[in-house]
Amino acid sequence: MTDSADDAAVTSLRIAALALPALGVLAAEPIYLLFDIAIVGRLGALSLAGLAIGGLILSVVSAQLTFLSYGTTARSARFYGAGDRVAAVGEGVQATWLALGMGVAIVAAVQLAAVPIVSAIAGTTPGGDIAGAALPWVRIAIFGVPAILVSAAGNGWMRGVQDTMRPLRYVLVGFGVSAVLCPLLVYGWLGLPRLELAGSAIANLVGQWLAAILFCWALLAEKVSLRIDTSVLRAQVVMGRDLVLRTLAFQACFVSAAAVAARFGAAAVAAHQVVLQLWNFLALVLDSLAIAAQSLVGAALGAGRTEHAKSVAWRVTVFSAIAAAVLAFVFAAGASVLPSLFTDDRSVLAEIGVPWWFMVAQLPVAGIVFALDGVLLGAGDAAFMRTATLLSALVGFLPLIWLSLAFGWGLLGIWSGLSTFMVLRLVFVGWRAFSGRWLVPGTN
Description:
Belongs to the multi antimicrobial extrusion (MATE) (TC 2.A.66.1) family. This protein has helices at 3-41, 45-63, 70-81, 85-122, 129-141, 145-160, 165-187, 197-221, 230-262, 266-302, 306-333, 346-351, 353-378, 382-407, 411-435. With 444 residues, it is an all-alpha fold.
C-alpha cells in the first residue's frame, strides 16, 4: 500500500470514528421526537396537531442559535488543529455564556407572546382547537430552551477538539430519562397523574436540563478560565450573525409550511409533522458525516493543510451520497408499513403518502448537500452559506408554499417547495466546493 493510500485509509477511519458517535448525538433527539409522536399520537389527531405546532415553535426559537454548535465547532477546530487546546475549549466557555443569556431572553419573550404566536401558526383564534392543545405544551416546554442551547455549545467545542463520545453519553442520558417519563406522564402509568400532552412537555424539559448539566460539568473539568472574554464573544457573534440569518431562512420555510398545512385541517398538519420529523431524522443521520467534515476540515485548515482538507471534503461527500441512496431505498420499500408506526388515525394515514414520496426522492440530493454544508461550515464559510440559503428559500421554497395556500394545492405544493429548495442549495454549495474559495488556512 502506498503512503497516499495509507493516508486515505487513516482519513476514512477518522471520519468514521467522529461520525458514528456524532450520529448517535444527532439521531437521539429526532428518535425521541418520533417516540414522543407515537406516544401522543394515540391521544388522537388533535393532540398530535397540538404537539406539531408546539414542537415547531420550540425548534424555531432554539434553532436560531445553531451557531452555538456549528460556529463553535469551526472556530474551536481551527485552534485545536493549530495545537492550542486551551483556546479551543475557551470557545466553548464563551459559547456557553451566550447560550445561557440568550436562552433566558427567549423564555421571557415566548411566555409573553405565546398566545398570539400559537394562534397565528395554528390558524385559529385564541382558545381554538389546535391552538388550545398546543399552548399549554409551549408554556412548559419553552423553559428547556436555555438547556438546549447549553448542550449545543457543549457539542460545538467538543466536536472541535474531536471528542464526540462524551456528547453521545450526555445526550443519551438526557433523552433516556425523557423517554421513560413521557409515557408515564402522558398516560398516568405507575400511579402518576394522567397529564396527556402536558406530560410530554414535562418529560422533554427534565431530559434537556439533565444533559445541559452534564455538558457544564465537562467544561468545568477542563480547568480553563470561565471569565467572559469580549473579544471571543464578538468573533462568535460575527460568525453567528450569518448563521442565524441562514437558520432564519430555514425556519421561515418550515413555519410557513406548518401554517399552510394547518389551514387544510388537523389531519394534514399531523401528516406533515410525521413526515417532517422523519425527514429531520434522516437529515441528521446524514449530518453526522457533515460534523466529521466540520471538525476535520477546520483542524486541517488551522494546521495549514489545505490538501488534506480537500481530501476530507471529497471522502465525506462520497460516503454521504452512498448513505443517502441506501436510506432512500429503505423508506421507499417501507412506504406501506412504516407510517402506521407513528399513528393509527386513518385521516392522518390518508394524507401521508404525498409527503412520504417527496421525502424519498429528496434523499439522494440531500446526501450531497449536507456533506458539502459540513465542509463549508468547517471552513468558516458562513457568509456564503447565509446568502445561498436565503436565495434558495426566497426563490424556491416560499413561493410554492404560499401558492399552495392560494390555489389549494395542500401537501403536494408544500413538499414541491421543499424539493425545489433542496435542488437550489445543491447548485450553490456544489459550485462553491469546486471553486476552492473556502480553502483559507490559519486560525482566523
